[in-house]
Amino acid sequence: MEEKNLSRRAFLGLGATAAVVAGAGIAGCSPAPKADSSASAGSGDAAAPAAGSGNPTEFVPSFMNPPEPIDESKVTETIDVDVCVVGLGLAGVCALREAADSGAKVIGIDKGPDVGYRSGEFGTFGSEIHKQLGIEQPETQEVVNELMKVMGNRPNAQLLNYWIGNSGADLDWYIGTAEHELLTSDSDVPTDPEKPYVFPERCPVNENYNWREENYPCFPGMVHLLPDHGWAMHGTLEAAQASGAEARFDTKGEQLIKEGDKVTGVYASDEDGNIIRINAAKGVVLSTGDISSDTEMLTYYAPQATKYGVFFSSMDKSGKPVNTGDGHKMALWAGAVMEDGPYAPMTHSLGTNSIGIDPYLMVNKLGQRFANEDVGAQELQNQIKRQKDGVTYQIFDSRWPEQLQYMPQCFGGVTHYVPPEEEEQYAHAISHFAAGYASDSYFQGEIEAGSIIPADSIEELAGKIEVPADALKATVERYNELAHKGVDEDFSKVSSRLFPIEEGPFYAVPFGDSGMLVLIGGIDCDPDLHALDAEKNPVPGLYVAGNTMGGRFLVDYPVTVAGASHSMAMSFGRLAGRNAAAGK
Fold first, then answer.
1. How far apart are CA 524 and CA 328, in angstroms?
2. 478 alpha-carbon distance from chain centroid
């Protein structure tokens, strides 16, 4: 797998132009459907209306038109298995291993050169790690209710219930494939930072933070697999292979094979273009990732998301991103349907390591305050996107070190100031972007890098960030007035995080458009992960997991449970593999 050398925080802090450059080279198709194309047998689709039919709701994009059936005479190899897993990212590798452990003969294929993975953050509940570290976590329904609330009650609550009830045991299963060290807190230091270790983020919980009192709570319990997620991914792959599974890379799933209504296999192509027929007697699991690197699909399903640069680090042999909706398309051609939207772009801002997204005053390019700053990372980006040029500035003064302790212990938040005499002791935590530790030295380094802009006066600061000085001065004066009153009469931020900006030097942190990590929206499915057709009936033999499945996240990606996407991919990948192996 080819990795881009760009940290998650660095990418998500990019301005709009830089984000687009980071995502440059992403291929897609122009939305030009075949007006004369009709669905192949068994697809369940009618003929596609012409693009110029006059009714945009009847427009059918070209990716929905099934390709010509594979010519059986072109097949160079036939493989007979119980289960075939298409896509070997996190969900796929977990499906592969669970199917093999369940006694099925299973093969997994992926069009990339290796397993696909990115960061190793996992939001889970009730694992042995949480028990060992004494991490208090909320009840299942408390989490489900909050997630449903922030996502407009659109996800499948049955799926969320399953995930929360099983994610802890699934994490233990997932990381148990490799030797690793468990750090005891977010300030602990690994014995060898080059060897596998588990880092508990925001542990222990800050005594000033009570998630039950937050408007945008962030539940505790996220762990980070370091120094790289690869040790758990490859450990799980090796465990699957030890149980008899086969894995083939540089092998792309092309079309599903159906006998009547049932999916019975997959046609695939290898790196030389040879066609392989894989007969899967019990089922096929599609776990090929999201759709964000297919421009036509992205434009059709989430046009608002096309304004973000796409960052995806897993590439195929030719250097193209692998998240092009291959599984979604194959499922659609076989009669399944996409879930109802709106789909959720993962576009959260993270700010700098020293200040993060802490809710200091934030202004736009007009020098105006525009919202309550005390929100989650995703919600913050939503407001930034509405501002002129998608650019805003975090404004604070020299008293930031004493104020961090009152900030929310959320994903992207910074809550601990480390004095100079303790910097060496806390060096690991300070340099880790999600730990929430800051120091004078690191702060100064970010000034030198241009991430933090200093000034001796508000007028000078306005000049440096090129906003109207009179407007910024008036905004700061109004903010200070509210801070001294202890009541935010303008946007209702809690008084405990309403700090006056009076003692220089003064600082600004620019925020721009974040990049988009994934666009979450997938094939409609039931709680057993069967792909569903337009009548909500299962497509026999077809299962979905990870970013190919629907029902997990809609409207917005919630940072209520940081690392939820990875955690769900793990749990639902495992469930899909188990159900496919059982033919359930």
1. 10
2. 37
Q: Say if residue 429's pLDDT is above 50.
A: yes
Q: Which residue did the predictor score with more confidence, 311 or 252? A: 252
Distance, CA of 41 to CA of 82 (rounded, Å)? 24
Q: Which of 113, 409, 71 is nearest to 254 (CA)?
A: 71
Selection from 382, 342, 376 nearest residue 153 by Cα: 342
Tokens of 273: 């273009």
CB atoms within 10 A of CB 142: 15
Average pLDDT over residues 456-474: 98
280 neighbors 82 (Cβ within 8 angstroms): yes
**CA distance linking residue 441 with residue 423, whole number of Å:** 8
Distance of CA 442 to the CA centre of its chain: 27
Instruction: Assess whether the previous peptide bond of 204 is cis (omega < 30° from 0).
Output: yes
The average pLDDT across 196-220 equals 90
pTM, whole model, 2 decimals?
A: 0.89
CA distance 364 to 579: 51
**Average pLDDT value for residue range 208-222:** 89
- Residue 54: pLDDT band (50, 70, 90) is low
Cβ distance 527 to 157 under 8 Å? no
What are 53's two structure tokens? 């039919």
Give the helix ranges, DSSP H, for 90-208: 90-101, 128-133, 140-150, 157-175
Strands ordered across the beta sheet of 197-200: 121-123, 222-226, 197-200, 181-182
